[in-house]
Amino acid sequence: MASIADYYAGKNVLITGATGFMGKVLVEKLLRSCPKVRTLYLLVRPKAGQSMQERVSDMMKCKVFDRVREDNPDFHQKIVPISSELTQPALAISPEDVERLTSCVNIIFHCAATIRFDEPLKHALQLNVIGTQQLLNLAQQMHHLQAFIHISTAYANCNRRHIDEIIYPPPVEPKKLIDSLEWMEDSIVRDITPRLIGERPNTYTYTKALAECVVQKESSKLNIGIIRPSIVGASWQEPFPGWIDNFNGPSGVFIAAGKGILRTMRANNDAVADLIPVDVVINLTLAAGWYTAVHRLTFPPAALVYNCTTGGINPFHWGEIEHHVMSSFKRNPLEQAFRRPNANITSNYLMNQYWILVSHKFPALIYDLYLRLSGQKPQMMRIFNRLHKAIGLLEYFSSQDWEWNSENMNMLMSHLSPEDRKTFNFDVRQLNWPEYIDNYCIGTKKYVLNEDMSDIPVARQHLRKLRNIRYTFNTLLLVFIWRVFIARSQMARNIWYFVVSLCFKFLSYFRASSTLTN
Ligand SMILES: CCCCCCCCCCCCCCCCCC(=O)SCCNC(=O)CCNC(=O)[C@H](O)C(C)(C)COP(=O)(O)OP(=O)(O)OC[C@H]1O[C@@H](n2cnc3c(N)ncnc32)[C@H](O)[C@@H]1OP(=O)(O)O
Ligand SMILES: NC(=O)C1=CN([C@@H]2O[C@H](COP(=O)(O)OP(=O)(O)OC[C@H]3O[C@@H](n4cnc5c(N)ncnc54)[C@H](OP(=O)(O)O)[C@@H]3O)[C@@H](O)[C@H]2O)C=CC1
């Protein structure tokens, strides 16, 4: 049987979401580990005043392509951008491009989605569900299509505690929902959204569940694989350890904690932190593409679902994450930290609110006062408000446990040759969590914040300065509070004299006993 790289040789691949976090790693891995792949067609939209060609050229300059660039400086010749807006009718692809794609594409990887947790339902539905349906319609016109791989999320069914590798009945028939929302005003949709999404925490997980259902409906006509990654984090090994380019999910939390801004967050210390490195997800995705195309053996045909998670295989917990993140940022501090990194997680709501007040709001107020007095614009309170909004949306995922069955991941691994298992490694049993988290934190510093590693001694010096400021501040505060008490209360004075006399007694006792022993 052909190896994975042999299978992709000479194939034309269509990718949506290639400019995103996972899309870039997918494009890079295909070019590097399947160098004989013929063409990668990337569906890209123009954005922020840039044409799609400009966006793709910029993307190819990205550091993540350094290794591919070394191996093959002309790798861009294999990339063909196609202008497409997934929320538009027929994906806004020109008739010439449709002709081209339908005549030659062999595999589709559908990564594009809105992953925002606060996306209005109509827009999330438009992109995640209707966009997927339109792509499936296009796929059906393709004469040589061998596999359609849809990237979903392990949290599509987060209303359940145990999640099997099956597609669960949708919360509502997608077509009915699309038809009814079409005529509704945005304000009405906003009002009924909580009722519609029910036990799910946001429109993202809700629309991803509906998208799976839309995909399943086409499984009698297409070879379909569905990948459900859990919380996708920085890369483990490839193209280099710790690569990450965004603030999504835990990355933003790690950075905020490393900068000393985030001090408290609601999370369960003992709950499994189901992080999965991005290169593991991409290796599994490429292997699933190969398997879906080569082994279409199920009858009746059904989409094969792969829960791509770590919790059941190599569990690690939020409490351990907290410990390793803090330790990593103390060894390799971020530049210009606001305070020394010292974040704690708690599952207690009241305790969290107390720490928010004491460790977030109070220092922010003092700092903003300082900025105001020195003629600058106050900004810390604004930053904290945004941070609270972001972590408020994430807490649902860090406060509870899920159990995913990942038999199909094991089954797929058993079908790989020893060579493919190395090249497309998704065996998370080998993942060393402390080392991974250390690289992850360094990755946020190098690739998200673009900080120089050679500046670490200066950053450490800055942390020492912050520690000294804290000691001085705490001492002054203590003295001040005590002075106020002593001045006002006879009882405080009595306690004070008692403690001081006790100290003297101890001192004189130790001095006497040390004189005797000498
Ligand atoms: C140390 C101990 C810690 C231990 C405990 C750690 C616990 C971590 C828990 C993580 C759980 C993650 C669960 C994810 C599960 C689902 C996975 C998926 O399927 S799907 C994948 C998961 N999907 C997601 O994760 C999407 C979640 N994100 C969102 O939905 C939105 O970004 C938003 C609503 C949070 C903010 O909206 P909005 O106010 O409109 O703001 P914009 O978006 O326009 O960004 C504004 C600025 O803020 C920046 N920034 C962004 N996020 C964060 C952050 N978290 N933080 C900080 N900063 C953040 C952003 O870069 C930007 O900077 P700039 O360009 O202005 O300089
Ligand atoms: N990141 C994570 O933790 C997880 C992600 N997933 C899934 O993985 C997939 C990829 O996620 P990730 O890479 O993190 O997401 P990103 O937000 O980084 O990337 C999303 C991609 O979708 C594209 N896109 C968005 N809207 C449109 C549109 N209207 N038309 C065309 N393209 C569009 C974006 O293009 P543009 O650059 O133009 O905005 C971008 O390329 C998603 O399906 C997500 O649900 C699943 C589990 C976890």
From TrEMBL:
Keyword check for Cell wall biogenesis/degradation: no
Membrane topology category: Single-pass membrane protein
Main location: membrane
UniProt entry keywords in alphabetical sequence: Lipid biosynthesis, Lipid metabolism, Membrane, NADP, Oxidoreductase, Peroxisome, Transmembrane, Transmembrane helix
Coiled coil: none
Entry-linked CDD domains: FAR-N_SDR_e (cd05236), FAR_C (cd09071)
Record domain Thioester reductase (TE): where: 15-284
InterPro entries given in the database record: FAR (IPR026055), FAR_C (IPR033640), FAR_NAD-bd (IPR013120), NAD(P)-bd_dom_sf (IPR036291)
EC number, as in UniProt: 1.2.1.84
Keyword Transmembrane helix assigned: yes
GO molecular function: alcohol-forming long-chain fatty acyl-CoA reductase activity; alcohol-forming very long-chain fatty acyl-CoA reductase activity
GO cellular component: peroxisomal membrane
TM region(s), chain numbering: 471-489, 495-512
Fatty acyl-CoA reductase C-terminal domain boundaries: 360-451
GO biological process annotation, one example: lipid biosynthetic process
Function: Catalyzes the reduction of fatty acyl-CoA to fatty alcohols. Catalyzes the reduction of saturated and unsaturated C16 or C18 fatty acyl-CoA to fatty alcohols. It plays an essential role in the production of ether lipids/plasmalogens which synthesis requires fatty alcohols. In parallel, it is also required for wax monoesters production since fatty alcohols also constitute a substrate for their synthesis.
Family note: Belongs to the fatty acyl-CoA reductase family.
Protein name: Fatty acyl-CoA reductase
Source organism per UniProt: Salmo trutta (Brown trout)
Gene name of the encoded protein: LOC115199001
